[in-house]
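Quick one:
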Amino acid sequence: MVRFAFCRFVVVTSLACALAQAAEKIDRHALVTRHNPHLTAVDPWAPLSVGNGEFCFTADVTGLQTFTDYYHAHGIATGTQARWSWHTNPNPNGYNLADANRPFTAYGKTLGYPTNDKSPAGQWLRENPHAMPLGQLGFVDEKGAALVLTDIANIDQTLDLWSGEIRSRFTWRGEAVEVSTLCNPTVDHIAVRIRSKAVANGALRVRLAFPRGHDIKTKNNPALDWSQPETHSTKVWPANGPKDFVPPVETDHERFERTRDDFNCSVELNTVGGVFSRPTAASPHALFIHGDLGVDTLKISVLYWNGRIQLDSFDWEKTRGQAAKYWEGFWQSGGAIDFAGSTDPRAAELERRVVLSQYLTAIQCAGDFPPSESGLTLSTWYQKHHTEMVWWHTAHFALWGRDPFLAKNLDWFTRALPVAREIAKGRDLRGARWPKMIGPDGRESPGGNPLIYWNQPHPIHLAELLYRNTPTPATLARYRELVQDTADCMASMLHWDETRQCYNLGPPLWIAQEIYDQSTSVNPCYELSYWSRGLQIAQQWRERLGLPRDPEWDKMINALAPLPQKDGKYVAIESHPDTWDNVASRHDHPSFLMAFGQLPGDGVDRAVMARTLDAVLKTWDWETKIWGWDYPMIAMTAARLGEPKQAVDVLLKSDGPNNSYTANGHNKQRDDLPVYLPGNGALLSAVAMMAAGWDGAPSYDAPGFPHDGTWIVRSEGLHPLP
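Output:
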């Protein structure tokens, strides 16, 4: 009896402790700061960045961009980029999209799609516009020469995530150097404080240099282009406007105008405790900064703008306070998840990836124009946005309760509706057809891009995520046209099959698994399910707006072609149902899993999907070509199927490519794609779903994580996925 009472006491007490722990708020400061990146040696795969969503500065171990070439050659390049900073080469031949057209015939009509990317027109249209990098800020010696990496020792560098400050300590030629690097949270402004006797005696200086651009003949991860200095200009801006170079004088404050063809931006440079030289004929795009003799502290402010707000004055301490306030507010708001106490040895690593992915996507994926796949760290695909990736880039913002970041991305789609409507009109479609590979003007790029379909429903799904968080008339009004025009185009992309009495999707189309013939592809599994989901959401929006349901859309929803399957498993596409017969068809994205992972499963048979997931895990070619976002996507499917152990195992799979995360949190892919933010965004979406659940999920906490005692999951502020 006494033994029973004691056992009951232990059980009740343990339960009470567990409930108390669950109710206790997460110590967010402890959670975040235990994952501050900390370096004690040069790691070219771990440069550290500060930014504000529209602008980003990436630094090496010196806190500046001193060893850019070394980092670019051996890991992740350092650089300064803004999402508004673009350049377009002259177009003397007047190339337009029609010049890259190829004919595609389907359903009794022939249309031209700009898929010829190998022609001169196609190549120019792909390469332009392209990102224009901003200034490179790095240390030089007293002669203006680059520092030698072997002269750097005693490295101690930390990115304080809670305050948004990079603190770098090292010795150079035996002298201690301390650098603090900050980014203003509201304007595109870098503030740096340097302390060292090497500054006081003039031995250590700083150079701000402006490249011509990137070497755009390299599509992914190009080097900075320092050639042809005569093709761009860096001019002092006096009261009456830009003028040619003035005699070299030293000053502590100056404004410069940067131009190259259609690119134009202003740069304002300020120093406290030092001065800098103006450009000269010998160095037309470089400014050299040195401290006042005998003063060991040098503060540098570099402000860029192109029609954006500029600072009234420079104050390093004020900038530091603004950054600290912003980042504390960021981490204290929105969602959080804590795995402390878990016995699974991978829990700490997953927590690290989650924390760092929140930071990286906040500084690189929250601009006025949706991000490229490498964000603002380096250039890939000329820094153009791939609209099929916008869900993986930004859906997590809504799931983590940071709706304004998603809204900024989605508002670009609203502003681009006129462009999308013109594309639809040119392809004999209604509504708004979203292009795929785009610059800020929305003009698509030649290649397979115009035949991608799965980008089309994304704006509807993302708008619905925002509405679920804020179900108000204002949300409906904000995205009303976006949802309705996107859905109207989706409906017009379907074709009635009289023989089968169903609606077909395609041809021509290029499915998410980009390996099938575009001219003959019809009825891909994932895209069919997404068409049903997108049209159903659009019908709900009509009802919320007091409008009748569109009868044509209902007919299409009810008569869509069935999701293709063979031998009891889903296949990628009906027209080429060889997924499980041909090993060559089992690489790239297993996109059919998204129909019951990212999406809730319109048209999905749960048992068939379970067999399909099992076949992917056992027989998919993980080595040939699989991407960082595939792992979280597959984990989401496993979670919905009630397989939380599989979900975690896939999410943290270590024996496949492209699922590693560097010390700074980046999802490395291959050598020419060292930064891949869709992987970070997908990770955040999957973890939010696994912790907060999904519509129809089991009612217990963290349904996507194992409940065998190995995972202790505490979360707050997360939203379930539909």
